[in-house]
Amino acid sequence: MLLFIVQRLLATIPTLLFATLMVFAIQRLLPGDPALALVGEERDPQVIAFIREKYRLDDPLPVQYLAWMWQLLHGNLGESIRTRQPVTQLILEKLPVTVQLAVWSMLVALVIAIPAGVIAAVRKNSLADHLSTFAALSGLSIPNFWLGIMLILLLAVHWQLLPASGYVSLFEDPVESLRRMIMPAFVLGTGLAAVLMRQMRSAMLEVLRQDYVRTAKAKGVRGTVIVVRHAMRNALIPVVTIIGLQMGALLSGAVLTEQVFAIPGFGRMIVDAVFNRDYAVVQGVVLFTATAYIAINFLVDILYALINPKIQVGR
């Protein structure tokens, strides 16, 4: 196990280096000058020259990249050109917002997807199976921004049950925080639930065809015991992979959902940073997102062994 962990950690180094190189190179291809975007309409040549010198915008691209990597090695993600705040501070401010939204969305997805997928597989070709398939296709087809707007019109405007938008910290007011997270979490959770439900159904159907399931039935084991203790445990392995990937996507920021519900998370921050040509913020957020993806997938590999001990993690 220790050797496996060391090997995976070493494998993350070239992945992270490639991610930093790609985000650095691609965003430099965007049209526009960050110095001109920062000074606004005045465009004083002295101010522009000062900004370009301060942020090394006139240096060759390889020099800029190496300077940024040198700062990373010292734990410094740089400074926002727009707000003059350290990028690390900006990420730490937005991280609780995005994590809270991601966790609630995933809980909504799991509560919907796991039971629906199991029922659809156990009762294959029944009304429950067809309804689950219809719900999954609907969840995949309906755009998040449209569903969010419809929920705001119904629950916030017409019925006045929930606030239309905004964010309140969980530590500041737990009840109000939950009320403001219900709609965006449901919007994101339904789309995730559709993917997870279809994966759960397919995995359950495959497991239910296995010999050990038929043997358990022949021995007179109750159906609920077979489904819960034997089939579900093995069917969750591919589902855990999807959960890990989707959780990484949520941590990178749900741009449209955060815009619709005015949630100040990673999604809105990265959009603002791209429009403002705030290179340091874009690079810092993308680097954090890549690290989160790698860390989550590493945890998924560990969970494989916990769900099914037959899997040799160290090989």
Structural class: mainly alpha
The average pLDDT value, as a whole number, equals 84
Instruction: Give the low-confidence spans.
Output: none
Largest beta-sheet characterization: none
DSSP strand content: under 5%
Proportion of helical residues: over 70%
Q: What form results from the Cα inertia axes?
A: globular
Count of individual helical segments: 13
What's the end-to-end separation, in Å?
9 Å
Radius of gyration: 24 Å
What are the secondary-structure elements, in order, as H or E?
HHHHHHHHHHHHH
How many strand segments? 0
Write a structural description:
The structure is a single chain. By secondary structure, this protein is mainly alpha-helical. The protein has a domain of 165 residues. Helix content is 76%, strand content 0%. Helix 1 runs antiparallel to helix 13. The mean pLDDT is 84.
